[in-house]
Each structure stands twice: as C-alpha cells, then as structure tokens.
Amino acid sequence: MTLSAQALSCQRGGRPVFEGLGFSVAGGEALLVTGRNGAGKSSLLRMIAGLLRIAGGTLSLAGGDPERSIGEQAHYLGHSDALKPALTVAENLAFWSAWLGGASEPREALTAVALEALAELPAAYLSAGQKRRLSIARLVAVKRPLWLLDEPTSALDAASQAVLLDLMRGHLAGGGMIVAATHLPLGLHGASELRLERAA
Length: 200
Hints:
By secondary structure, this protein is an alpha/beta fold. It is built from five helices and eight strands.
C-alpha cells in the first residue's frame, strides 16, 4: 500500500498555502512533515483525511480499498481531542470505536495507553495529557492502515511519549503508514522528512 501526492496545492481564504507538492509513503514507512507555523502542515493532514478540499493535484492510495476514501482508511489525530466530558473514559472510547467500525469492547486499547484504571472516570476530570492518551487509544481500538498525526506528542509527558513511540513503531512494523506533522523529533529512525515552506 502506498500513499502518493502529485502536484498537490492548498488554498486558505483564497490565498495559496503550498503548491506543487509531491511525496510518497509506502507501508512500513513514516513521513515527518515539518516547517514554520502557517506553512500548511495541519492543512496537509486535513487534506489527506478528506476534511479540506484539494485546490489542485491528486492524492491516491494504491493498494487500499477502492470502495472507500483515503480518509475512511485513515486515523486523523488533530489538535482537538474530541471527547464528551460527561461520558466516562471507557464510554468515550466505545463511542469512537463503534463510530469508526471497531470492536464493541475496546478495553485493550485503554491498557495500551495506561488508562485502564481510569475507565469509569468522566472525561471531564482528565488532565490534558490523559485526554491526549485517550485520543491515541482510538488508533489502537480500530485498525486502519494510515495514521495522520498532528503534533501527536502535545501535552504528553516523557513516559506517555515513550508509549506513543512504541505504538507508532508497532504500527509501522505491521505494514502501516504514518504521516506526522511535528516540530519535535518523534524518535522514528529512518523516517523521511517533508519540509513545507510558506507560499510566496
């Protein structure tokens, strides 16, 4: 499976963000998207996820399910953790798991991110780092080949960053793909880098 972009362009408010972008990511590979604020890192991930219209060029997922969009075969982890405060940790994950087509009892995913002890706690009481870990649990609960991660280490302490790194390495070892927008090193040795520059 290979995700490819050819001559990809993005506009925001009628102004170009980036133009003529090309890259390729195969199964087992990671692509780190870097660049200054405003260069279009988040916009690129949202575009791949199908949340932002493509202004020009093409995106394709060779070897994927032809009946499903790229976004339907991807996990998008954005800046917002998208949790319902009144629901418990377990209920939040069960909701997202059912919505995304995963297992009905995703307790293994909570264990993977060290949140099993907080399963019955309302999400409103979680710290920022715990909320981020609950969002990351969706990646484990529902298997999808492409992970789109926007500043995935945001709000995570060193121990939680190590857990995320193990999950990312496991995903790649299983033939998955990762496209991550980041300002910080993620520890994924051998990952390619795509540096975005602001359009003139």
